[in-house]
Each structure stands twice: as C-alpha cells, then as structure tokens.
Amino acid sequence: MNFIDFSDVKITGGFWKQKQDMIKNTTLMAVYNRFSETHRFDALKCDWKEKGEYEAHIFWDSDVAKWIEGAAYILSERRDAELERLIDEAVDNIADNADENGYFNSYYLTTRQDERFTHRSDHELYCLGHLIEAAVAYNEATGKDKLLKAMCRYADYVEKVFRTEQSAAFLTPGHPELELALVKLYKHTGEKRYLELSKFFIDKHGDNDKEKGISVYPGMFELSYNQDEVPIRERSTVEGHSVRALYLLSGAADIAAVYKDKALESACRRCFDNAVNKRMYITGGVGSTHIGETFTIDYHLPNRTAYAETCAAIALAMYSRRMQQFGNDSAFADTVERAVYNGVLSGISMDGKSFFYENPLAVDPDFNNVNPATKEKERYPITERLEVFGCSCCPPNIIRFLASISGYIYSFDDDTLYIDQYIDSVTQKEDFHIRQTTCYPADGKVKIQCNCDKKYLALRIPQWCDSFKLNKDYEINNGYAFIKNPGNTELEIIMDMPVKLVASNRRVHENAGKIAVMRGPVVYCAEAADNGKDIISAVIPKGAEFSLADTEFMLPALKVKAMRPKSESKLYYTAGNDYEQFDMKLIPYYAFANRGTSEMTVWINRGF
Amino acid sequence: MNFIDFSDVKITGGFWKQKQDMIKNTTLMAVYNRFSETHRFDALKCDWKEKGEYEAHIFWDSDVAKWIEGAAYILSERRDAELERLIDEAVDNIADNADENGYFNSYYLTTRQDERFTHRSDHELYCLGHLIEAAVAYNEATGKDKLLKAMCRYADYVEKVFRTEQSAAFLTPGHPELELALVKLYKHTGEKRYLELSKFFIDKHGDNDKEKGISVYPGMFELSYNQDEVPIRERSTVEGHSVRALYLLSGAADIAAVYKDKALESACRRCFDNAVNKRMYITGGVGSTHIGETFTIDYHLPNRTAYAETCAAIALAMYSRRMQQFGNDSAFADTVERAVYNGVLSGISMDGKSFFYENPLAVDPDFNNVNPATKEKERYPITERLEVFGCSCCPPNIIRFLASISGYIYSFDDDTLYIDQYIDSVTQKEDFHIRQTTCYPADGKVKIQCNCDKKYLALRIPQWCDSFKLNKDYEINNGYAFIKNPGNTELEIIMDMPVKLVASNRRVHENAGKIAVMRGPVVYCAEAADNGKDIISAVIPKGAEFSLADTEFMLPALKVKAMRPKSESKLYYTAGNDYEQFDMKLIPYYAFANRGTSEMTVWINRGF
C-alpha cells in the first residue's frame, strides 16, 4: 500500500482550506515569533554564554525543526523568499555549528559539551529525527540541500556511534522519533543504511540489557515509560509515555512494512487494537494521565484530568496512517478522522494563535483548586489556550500536521485507489486525476470526479455512517465501498449525517450513565458560555431532537431541548419533578475554550 | 434546653442494643489490645529512652483518654474490676508522672522536655481536653477522683500560663477540644474558672495578632486550617480542618448557650447552616479532601476521594446536638441521625474490630493506581478497614460516642420534653419516665410509654419522613409533633418508611444525573460483592420498585430491577437498546467493605 503524497494533492475549498489558510496566514508566523522571542532560533547559533539571556533546552532543536518542516510544506505550494530567508538563517546556524563529526545539538554543544550521548532521555536523537524530517521536507519543497546534507552527515555519525561501535551510553533513542525519520530519509535519499539503522533501533528497543539497567528518572518512572520494558515484537498493549509509544510504533510499522516482518506487523496490529479499542478518548486523544504523560490501563479514561496531549493525537493519526501499509481497513482512516477533527484540532484556537498541550473532555473551573486552607494545589489542565509554553512541542506539530494533511486523503495498491478522507481537493499527480468537491464534515455529500485506471476505486464508509447513497454499484469490503472499473467517472456519495448519541463501554466508569453527542466525525460539547453554569448537571432526554444552529465555529452548532435540575436551594431532596427544560446548545469539541474559561463537558447525562 | 444524660437512659433492645453490645464485648478490648501493642499505654509511664522500642507520639495521650472515656461510659452501667484495673493503671501513670505544676504529656515530658507550650499545632491542649473528658466520665461512673484531681490541677496550670500570664508561645489550642472539655469540667465541678478559661479561648480564636503570625506548617497551610483566620463571631462558613472546626464550634455553642451570647449563637447558626446545607455528604460525612483533612468550598463533594473522617461525622453530631441548646429545631437532631446511621457507623466494621478513618462514597478498586509506567501513586482512601492505624483517633472516638449515644435521645426545656431520636430504651431518671419500644430504623413504628408532667411531649418528625400516623392529637412545630399535656400515656407513632430516591443540588457536579437510595435515615450503597463489577455503570430506572431483602447487615438489604449496559466489546457505540435488566442489591452504606475490597457506589445513575 502506498500513499499519494501531500504535495500531489491540493486542498481547494471547504473546511480544510480555511484551516490551512489559517495555518499559513497566522499560525506559522505566530509560532515563529514566539519561538524567536524565547530564543529558540538564537540558540542555534551555539554562542550561549553563562548568565546570558537564555539557556538552550534539550528539546528546542526539535521545536525549530518541526516549524521548518511545517514551513517547508507551505513552501511546497508556493515559494516565499522572506520565509526561506528565515529558514536558511536557521539552516546555516545548524549546518555551520555542527562539529567535525556532523553532530549538532544546540543544548549539548553549549552547556554540556562533554556529556554527548550519555543521557538517554534527553531528546538528542529525538531532535535529530525532527531535523531529518525538516531537512527532507525543505529539500523536497525547495531543492535546497544544505540541511539535508548536514543531517545525512549527522545520521552517519549516529550510525557509527550507535550501531557500528555501540560506544554511546545507551543503544536506542529515549524519546523515539529518529526511527520513523530514518525511514523517511531512506525513502528520500535511497540510502539503505538509514533504513537499517532504523531497523536496528526498532529491534533493540526493550530487547537489550544495557538499557534495562538505565533508570530514566530514578524513583519516578518504570522501564515502560521510555519503551524499554518489552521488545516491540512481544507487545500487545501500548504502554508508557504516549507520544514515545506511538512514534516508536509508527517507526515499527514502517520497518515491518518495508521488511515484510510479520512478527512486527502483528505486534503493531495488537497495539493498534489496544490503543483504539481500550485506551482512546472519543476525541482520539490518548494518554490518560499527566503523570509521565502516559497510557494507563484499559478503560481508564478520566475526562476532567485527561492528558490527551495534542501531539499524542497527532501521533495516533501518524500511526494509524502507517497501519494502512499492511492492507487497508477503514478502522485506520476512521481513527485518523476521529483524532483530526477532535483531539488534534482542539489543540489550536479558532484564531490560530494559541494552543492546548492537554485536551481535557471536561472543564469545571469553579471546582478547580477549592481548598482555601492549604497552599497545596491539585493539578488540572489549564482552561485557556496559550501562545507559547515551556514545552512547546504541540504548536509546530500542529503546523506541520495540518499543512500536510492532504497526504492522508488517498492510498493505493496495485488494484485499488482508496479514498480515505473526504476533503475538498484535487490531485496533481500524473497517474491519478481525482477531484473531490465537498463541504464535509458540514454535511455528508461528496462529489468525486475521477479518471482512474485502477481496477477499483474504494470509498471509505466512516464508522459513524449508518446509511449512505452512492450513484454507482459497489460492494463493501473492510469498511470501504468498492466500485469496479471506475475509469473516467463522476461519483456522488451522500452520507446521512444525523446527530448521534454515543455511549461507552460499561468498564469506562467515568462515562457511566452518560452519552456523547456526535455529528459525522465531529464530537460536540456543551459549554457554560452558551448554557450557563452547571451544564455538567444537565440531561439530554431520551428521543430528544437536535437541530442545526449557527456556524460560529466553522461547523453548525447543535440545539436540543434538554433538562436540568431546577435551581434548588436544598443540598439533598427527594427526586421527583425536579428538572426543567432548557435550550441546550452544543458546539464542536475542537472549538471549546475560545470564549475564555468556561465549564465544559463532552459526556452528558443520559435521560434514558 | 437541657439533655437527659446518657447515664439516665438505658438502651434495652433493637439496633442500638446490638451495636452497644458489640462495643462493650468486642471493640473496647480490641482497641485496648491494639493500643497496648503499639505502646500507647506504656508511653504513659514516661520512661521512654532513646533507641527504645517506641517513641511516644504527640496525640497518643488523647487516644488513651478517649478509650478511658468510652470504658467509663460502659462502666457506668455496670462496674467491672478488671476493666477498672486497666484504667487505674493508666490513671496512676498519668497522675504520678505529672510534673510539679500538674503538667502531663507523655510526648513532651520524654522527648522534648524543653519545648512545652511552644508548638501550637502539636495537640498538647487537645490531649488535655480529652483527658478532662475521660476524668469527668470516670469520676461519674466510679466516683474515683484521682484522674479528675490531676486534670483539675493541669487545667489550673493551663489557666495560669495561658490566661493569667499569657506566657506560652501561643494563645489558643491549635487543635480545639479543650474548649468544650472545660465546659464539661465546669459543669461537673461547678468551678467557674474552667468556663471562663474556655470562653477566653473561644474569644481569642482568630482574634489575636500573636497567632496570626504563626504558620503551622509553613508553605502548606493557611491560617484557616487551625481556625486562626477569623474570630468565631464573624464566621459564616466552616473552614479548615474539619474536626478542629467542629470541635471548636461545639465549644463555642456551649459558651454561647451558657453566656447567652447572641453574636456567638448567630455565628454558630450560620456555620451550622453552611456545614449542613452546603458542605456535607449525604452520609453526614464532612471534610471533602485529605489535603489538610479540611472543608473545601460549597458543593464540592467528591465521592471517591471523599475524606469524610469518622471523627468529623462524630464532631458534626456533637455540634448539632449542642445547637439544640439555642432552642429546638428538628434540623439539629436530623443531622445527628444522618451522621450516626451513615458516616459514623461506616467507620467501624460489622464485627466491631476494624475501622475506617476515611469514609468514601464510592470505591473503584480496579481503577486505583493504574499507571504502570510511574512509581508515583495517586492517593485514594483504603478499601478495607484496619484494626489500628498510626493516627488512631477514630476507633476510641467511636467507642465513647456509641457507648454514650443514649445521651442523644431526649432534650427538654421548661415546657417540653423532646424525643430527638427513636431508640429502644427506658429512662432511669426521677423526673421523667419514658420507655420507647422500637426496632427503628428497621421500620418506622415506635411505641412510647410515658409519664411526663411537662406541658408538651414533642416527637421529632424526621426530615426523611413524608407521612406518619400518631395516635394522639398533635401540632407540628419546628419539625416536631407537639402533644399537649401528655401525662401518663401510651403513644404510637408509625412513620412510613418507603425507599426514597434522593437527588442533590445541581451545583454538586459529582452527583449530576445520579440519585442515592435511602430508607428512613439510612443511606444505601451498591457493592460489586453483590452485583458484580461495573456496578458504577448501572442505572435505576424511573419508577423502579424496591423490595426488602435479607438482614445480613442488621437492616434489610434492598432489591430492585435495575439496568446495566450489556457486556459490549466496543469502546464507543451508538446508544440505543444497549442496557439489560438485572437484580440490583443494595446494602446499608455503613456495611460496605465488610466482605473484602469491592467496587462500591452510593450515587447511582438515574434512569429519569
């Protein structure tokens, strides 16, 4: 299975054109400016002095790298001399400050020169991975190869130290990312040693005595945090730091696909099943706890303290996409869709300028830190997005992800062209000509003009879709509607998109007696900003009818006659005629907290 | 308003005879043995040496004192030479080891001789308070006065240091208790200086600059923790450490009643209203958080992490009882009843041998500490009662409280004899002859034989009771049914005791969409031990009918046709015909966790 590259698909209208325009016109430079102000670009000069204005940080290079990668995706559509000047300046600093071996890390080169490759958890190889992804993207977008050459040299040095000599203090990246980046570098350069180095890391993770003895943060974390406990091929569950786990599994899926490694593929499938069917929020968020930013156990999905890092939702989409390499099944693109429209997009404000690192499914600000007798504060996610935070991995990750989202639309094998996502767009590739016209997910209607010499054209029928009309004969297989010999054709699929009430498995005690409201792939939430306080106490009655309302946040809001307890002075009272009707308004979850701090809930009491 | 003393009312049968027999036959010596093993009695010898077997603790004297007080209440019914020998041994150690001033504290006299009266929060005066209560009780029960004399001497010394000279490092007890004990000592001895010393403390709490500057545990607690922030007369809310707050308010109510201090009475009334109508669990538990064991804010009543210390429920009962001194209103005895049958009794196992310090309203053991990647553990209440714990204030507090519970049955003023609690019992007092025959709260029928020369006999109509039959004419006033000129009479009241579903104020977000099941004053809960796992996900349908079942735990269990989600493999699914019926069994909340660790919930999803 192959994917049509994002650069061969131009998004032409609808929901995603708006989002990409926002990224291009606002977010890109907003993040650049915040990163400049916080000296993330200055740090690349490696001229830091003690008692200077700033001190470089172990993961700052990766922030800049993801920003360059995102910028490159935007440049691939249209070159921009001023933007390239900013990037080239950074590239010059990176390439020119690399040492004689090709090694570059703005933190270790300045503040801890003698400690290179001794602190496994300190993101050195993670930064390299992101710099490689940036180098490949910038080379593809502009043809410029200074960063690419520098990163190849650095990767060669890593190969020597880690694989050939095994002379570093550790064997594999403490924060995976390099694994998948090396596969990208291999595919871009054709140099098989990068693939082999990636495979080396994938094979060694959790399967070596050297790292079993390294405790990352003694007394705090177990081996699983850093993906060291179990060899990947033996895993059946996603464990530890959620972004580390899913970046590693993304690399593992790439390696399994290239090497046709069935044991590794099976492990990837088992872990995907575990992540998606036992440990994922309805928003596609993963990682239930801030403590270690980790997965916890099956069905443990607290809403108010959900960690659900934006980067983890992106990583889940990346991993799900790579799972398609083993043969298509709509569960993979369904998961991408769930994450993208909910747990990823919630990470960025509607104006494109501020961000959530964590994406809780409930906010109850009146009851955060309510103990006036103690100075000790309980930890809750912040209630408003910020322009920058200390650990600013998410903002540039959103940029690069949304700027290249058109790479998630199509996949193909010898027989079949798959439409994985419905996005208003046109391909710009020789072998396929396909145009989608749609305002999905505002509604479920998609027009598809197609000239395709594949035996089949396959349209994903989303998991949320119970009924649809398609103006051609089709056969359903693995969640896709297969149309035989499509040739030069005009298709129209109309997916019914009613509001649906979704319940969760009875083991998810957090959601007991509650339902979530979805329309199409979009999860909705109720905010106090629309409904007044105590919206968490409201109930959606059985058989309640929803109507579409304003589109303040790009997609229609929903209205429903709901019930809530009367304003009752007693603390406890006999249940009876104690609820009254009110007009509840729901907005897309991704749009919560765009009007200041507000009580919010995704899961709403079910009126049975 | 006065109370008929516990020693004048003998419990003769029913629920409380069983409980008192358990305390007398099992709990008293079980706690004695645990206290002996842990050297709490040894410590009274004050011969502790460094590197010895144990080190005395700042509050051990209070543990022993409460045990003596409880034992004394039991002795007041029937003397027991062996038990008295154990007490006398302790008394000898206490009296003989007091210093030349009368000062006694087994911790300060041994390990920190030079630091007497310098650490306000270290329970010195708290220990004295409990020793005074023990001394009064033991003197009343046996006529022996060694402990009483020793404690009078100690109290005199405290008066000198704290009131006359004001030479201690602080002005008022960091952990209130002495305030109410001094009123007891005054009433027992007739010595007004003890009353005045109590009033001095009540007046100074939160109303002096000396203590405003003392930070108890720097960086952790605010002034309100130790009741130092606001003068009592200015308070409208209960704040800080819940036991400290309620012991202090109990003392304040006593002082307000004796001195007819209207400002203090008003403050007591406001605080009672705040505690009971905004900050109390349905079980009568108070103190929502383990952090500082404190009250938090109105309507913040988390169930699974509820602190609701057994001692705090006892303190609420003590405070509520004292509120009756200002004139009777059934709200006071209602609160006593709520606390006693639920949040107090839950603190002791059915066999009388083990105890809860915390009394959560939900237990979800499968989802406690679910993060395999970190060593950091989240804090949840323990899931099974223990025979002893480091801070063992609750076990002897239960003994003394339940052993003297007959003191909560009657109150009187010039005109009226009030029946505050329905307990099978007979008075043994000259002026009143009254016998209650009842198995309350197994049902709501109470026979009352009475010979009373008061103008009125008043029967409390409990807040849970919507209808009752009474075989005499009556008039309802302040929640009591007043019967005029009762004379020599035989009464029968039959209170209908259907199962009731109780909802909470919409501000209590924890209980949104949920109901609690009560029968009479007793709160019920559902345990996995009866219902299987995921009982938290079950729903009680609208109009469901309950029936009474076995009485394994003294009162009938309840059965109801409830619904729960089908065992469904999907994590999320479209809500529809997804629930199935099952027989739910509920047991009295006080009986939870008597069959090992089990998922448990008081608040159950409401089927509307």
Question: What would your notes on this structure say?
Answer:
Two copies of one chain form a homodimer. With 608 residues, chain A is α+β, with helices and mostly antiparallel strands. Chain A has helices at 14-37, 60-75, 81-97, 124-142, 146-164, 178-189, 192-204, 209-212, 242-259, 262-278, 310-323, 330-344, 394-403, 528-531, and strands at 2-3, 9-11, 362-363, 410-412, 416-419, 425-427, 433-438, 445-452, 456-460, 468-470, 475-477, 480-484, 487-495, 499-504, 514-519, 522-527, 539-541, 546-548, 558-565, 572-574, 579-588, 600-601, 603-607. Chain A folds into three domains: 18-372 and 380-408, Glycosyltransferase (Alpha/alpha barrel); 411-495, Maltose phosphorylase, domain 3; 499-607, no CATH class. The first copy, chain A, contains 14 helices and 23 strands. In chain A, strands 3, 14, 15, 16, 17, 18, 19, 21, 22 and 23 form a ten-stranded mixed sheet that branches. In chain A, α2 packs parallel to α4 and α4 packs antiparallel against α5 (146-164). The longest helix of chain A has 24 residues, at 14-37. Chain A starts with a strand and ends with a strand. The relative contact order of chain A is 0.10. At the A-B interface, α10, β14, β15, β19 and β20 of A face α10, β14, β15, β19 and β20 of B.
